[in-house]
Amino acid sequence: MSTSNTGRRNARRRPALSALRPVLLPLGVAGLFLCAWDAAVCLSGSDLFPRPMEVLWGIVELVQKGLLLKYIVASLFRVTCGFTLALVLGIPLGLLLGWFSRAFEAFNPMIQVLRPISPIAWIPLAILWFGVSDAAPVFLIFLASLFPIMVSAMAAVQNMQLVYLRAARNFGLSRMQLFRRVIFPATLPQVLTGLRIALGVAWLVVVAAEMIAVNSGLGFLIIDARNAGKRYDLVVAGMVLIGLVGLGLDLLVRQLERFDEVKWGYGSR
């Protein structure tokens, strides 16, 4: 009887552990990383690189001064503007270029020439055109996001299974209906992957742009903390905040994978 009860208790625990595993495993890795970080700083005896608690107190200081929320909102505002513009323009253009072969042959070489150019290389021109204002980083984020989104949309159309098109033609769908009811839903999973990549690149670019082109945001926090008394605790605090916000943005985009219109395109284990 006792063995049977023990088995039942273990069976009840397994679902609970499975539900907590996605949270416990990352927290465990993060805890080990923080311990290794603290130990490395203590053993090295360095006064330049801060310990984890010093970084935490730096974040608390930013909160007390009212700067933390201000800088995060400023960075998110620029990313939202630039990324939204790229989204509105990149997806339709990518779908059209992927569908019309002559348009693809005409414009793809130019896209492939512009795509490898780092958005950071556009910073001098962005400052020249837009000055030290929000428009400069928004323009850089737009460029950084546009090409990944456009290329992923083109590839999604070109790699689409022909069985979808044949079935649509059998039902006599018009060209507009074909795009709306077949092509766009069929390409959504791959386009969403492109959006995740583009958002990550956009978040990288806004930090670099804020170090040069504006006087607010998390990128500005890092460069300003370094220049104003070499506050390396605030420098690392800015780096930690950039990583945490980037993680939050990625998790937010991944929630779109739960919708039925997209979920079918992802394998499950």
Explain this structure to me?
The two termini are 35 Å apart. The chain has helices spanning 2-44, 52-64, 68-99, 101-114, 123-130, 135-158, 162-170, 175-210, 218-227, 232-254, 260-263. The chain has 269 residues and is mostly helical. The radius of gyration is 24 Å and the shape is globular. Helix 3 packs parallel to helix 6 (135-158). The longest helix has 43 residues, at 2-44. 80% of the residues lie in helices and 0% in strands.
How are the elements arranged and paired?
Layout: H1 2-44, H2 52-64, H3 68-99, H4 101-114, H5 123-130, H6 135-158, H7 162-170, H8 175-210, H9 218-227, H10 232-254, H11 260-263
Helix pairs in contact: 2-10, 3-4, 3-6, 3-8, 3-9, 5-6, 6-8, 7-8, 8-10, 9-10
List the total number of helices: 11
Question: Count of DSSP E strands?
Answer: 0
Report mean pLDDT, rounded to a whole number: 82
Beta-strand residue percentage: under 5%
Give the C-alpha Rg: 24 Å
- What is the makeup of the main sheet? none
Flag low-confidence runs: none
Assign an overall shape.
globular
Structural class: mainly alpha
Distance between the termini: 35 Å
Keywords for this structure?
269 residues, 11 helices, globular
Short précis:
With 269 residues, this protein is mostly helical. The protein contains eleven helices and no strands. The protein has helices at residues 2-44, 52-64, 68-99, 101-114, 123-130, 135-158, 162-170, 175-210, 218-227, 232-254, 260-263.
